[in-house]
Each structure stands twice: as structure tokens, then as C-alpha cells.
Amino acid sequence: ETLIKALPIIKENHVNFILAVGGGSVIDGTKFISVASFYEGDPWDFLSKGVRAQKALPIGVVLTLPATGSEMNAGAVISREATKEKRSFFSPLVFPRFSVTDPSVTFSLPPRQVANGIVDAFIHTMEQYLTYPINAPLQDRMSESILITLMEEGPKAMVKPNDYDTRANIMWSATMALNGLIACGVPTDWATHGIGHELTALHGLDHGLTLAIVYPGVMKVMQNEKREKILQYAERVLKITQGTENERIDKAILKTDEFFRSLGMKTRLSENGIGQDTIETIVERFTKPQIVRLGENQGITPEKVRQILIERL
What we know:
By secondary structure, the chain is mainly α. It contains twelve helices and five strands.
């Protein structure tokens, strides 16, 4: 609703370039405006019907909140308040022409937003890593390096907001987490984002917070399908080597949740005033025919979504 207001301004003033100054929401909104400005129909078609953009205004970025990686990718996520929806679209036409990423501009971010960014980048990486083995040792090592960096630098950023080196490492990690590099040639699982978007659309929770709530549930409920990669993550990233396989998996899930909580995240639905009614609403949304089945093997059914959310009550 807000973004649509920019369209007549663009046309009346013959705007030929848009500069996004902000975080993922600002950048994504700018991407939406850039394609909507040339579209004669309802711009929501790009998100709801998969309409492909034929033309777009060029955009540039000054990044102020490292999190989404939108400064170096062709995707965008947009919310629609009227229908309580949050959807995504992709187009090479909206890839930024340039992005200025200066860590010093993040010094003044409130701790909540710093934590949101760290978790968002972490989950982006996990969703391209924690699936199943596919003979991709280089991709795995790159993902693991991002995860380790975020786990080392994240807590520092929460207590030393003006540490340039720490903020630089987080900013670069967030960009690398979703610029397409670590996704090359590997299966991906965007279920956590899909479920998290519903929590944001229905309750207005911060995006990063929704991911911190949902992801441990995905690990728990889908642990058999992700078994080998969870054990690899436990050993290489978390240094968990003792105990049976099941014990190591349980420890990995617990330590992941503890990492999110160390950043100040309330990782339970009940801590955020959300109960069973919301779970059923979300499950119902995932039964609609137009909704793509979730998971790296499309194995996360609406019933699995219910189990994941119940696990996080």
C-alpha cells in the first residue's frame, strides 16, 4: 500500500533512477517500485501470479542494515497489509547497479535490529546448507565459514556497537549469505522463511525474530531428512563430537536455539503472545493450491508445518 504511492510521483517527475537507502525492506520496496512503474496492471501480480517484469528502473543501494543480502541479489519480499500476505518475486532487472556497504553507518542501529540481521543472515546460510549431502565440499565449507563467522562476531556486535571490524565482518557475511554464491549446485530449503513470513504478516513480528522461532522446529521435525547435514554442522560448526548421533543432533538443535537467545531473541511462540489459533491459520494458508510445497524435497506438508510450530510453542 505504501509503495504504490510512489508510482504517480515517479511518472509525474520522469524519475529515471532510484536510490535505496536502508535495509532489506527499503531495498526490496525499491525493487518493487522499479518494476511496478512500468506495469499497467496490478503490481501485486508480480508476487501473486508470477508475472515476469519486462522493464525496470535502475536502482542503487546505500546499505544501513546488513541482513537480507538484497544489496547483491535479484529478489525482493513485499507485504500487503490488506490481505495479511508476505510474498516474494525475482527478476534480474532489479539487481542493484551498485551498493555502498559502509560498516560505520551500522554503529547506531538498535540492538534488536543488529540481532535481526545476524539471525537473518545465519538462517539464509542454513537454508542453503542444512539439506542433504550432494558432493559439494566447497559450497559446504563456504557456508560453514559464514556460520562460524556470524557465531563469533554476532555476540561481539551486541556488546561493542562501534567496533568497525566486527560490523564489517557481519556486513560481508550477510551479503555473502544470499548473493547466490553458496546456493550454486546445492539443494535449498526455504521453509523457515515461508513459515516466518506468515508470522510477520499475521502478527507484525520482526522477520529475524520469526526465523529464530521457526528454525529450531524445522531442525527437530525434519531431523531424519536432514540427519547427515545436521551431524556435519554439529561437528564442523559447533564442535560437537561426543555422544551418540541422536545426542549430537539434539545438542546441535539446542545450541542453535541458545545462539539466537544469546542475541536477545525470544524464540518461543508463547513468549511472543502467539498460540494455537495462529498455528491453525498458518497451516490453513499452506493448504491452498497455489502455495508451493516446502522443503528441499517438498516434504514439508501442512501437517509438518503444524508440527514445527507446535514444537515452538
